[in-house]
């Protein structure tokens, strides 16, 4: 078990990359990590310029993943990078994660974890055989009130789950997709870089993950109806998925990148026979509790009535809003505890198995739609 701050490396996330900024802020937040180097850009000169802006040692800036692994492993164990964050486009994730795990590094990876479920299974086997950790950044699981929702459901406060309803609506592709030239320039609509799905692969999978995370119940089958909008666009930009859960509950997942005017409208509602819980990402500090013949209750972070897991995931006093960086920071905190061999709560960070589940979901949703909107077992 190491001591002191965890030495962090990064693949991608260079100058102007929002997701890189998000990961760096999240890592710094808990004062558990120190960014020391990485391969920040496919253009090595740009990577060096970026590293200089961050006042990083130029000798720890690498042109590619292979060089990082080779050079870092030549350093004394106390000095080398321990955890590497992958913040690149989808098609690069698997190869990078595989090489890093084989090279002896822990991995934080953006989702989707891989391009196929077969690749995801390979990474799962590697995590097991290497003894290394892989954290998949399903960031919304890091919100305190999502963790409170998970804890309350596990404690039976809403009773037996009867129905789930989850949505993730964005509108960012809408201004671009109606122009043929523009839509062909979007990497998320390119199967070679995005995989077999755009909408479900990018954001629908977050809804899938939230259902399984909060309820603790696996989704067993899906029936999907997807929309590509144009015949020359092969990937979905909108869709609805019916869900069947283990134990008999049913539900629906709705996801769209052409929901005009929407920003990041995530909502999850879980209905049991004793009550219901509702959470919205655009108002993340409120968890709504509904019960028969009781007034509606709003639970908020920072209060003593919350579970210990929720309190541990809350950084500010009541009334001080926490957001997406804080949520991602909780994942990095959980990963740090795992790397250092500390005791973990159930659900501190999404693991490689969440990545495997997500890839199976994406593939089965696409197959259900392709086969004529039929039920497919996950």
UniProtKB/TrEMBL annotation:
Database matches in InterPro entries: Gfo/Idh/MocA-like_OxRdtase_N, Gfo/Idh/MocA_oxidoreduct, GFO_IDH_MocA-like_dom, NAD(P)-bd_dom_sf
Domain Gfo/Idh/MocA-like oxidoreductase N-terminal per the UniProt entry, residue ranges: 7-136
Domain GFO/IDH/MocA-like oxidoreductase residue range list: 146-277
A Pfam family that the UniProt record links to this protein: GFO_IDH_MocA_C3
Segments forming a coiled coil: none
Transmembrane segments: none
Top-rank taxon, per record: Bacteria
Xref: PANTHER family: CONSERVED EXPRESSED OXIDOREDUCTASE (EUROFUNG), OXIDOREDUCTASE
Name of the protein: Gfo/Idh/MocA family oxidoreductase
Organism: Reichenbachiella agarivorans
Organism phylogeny: Bacteria, Pseudomonadati, Bacteroidota, Cytophagia, Cytophagales
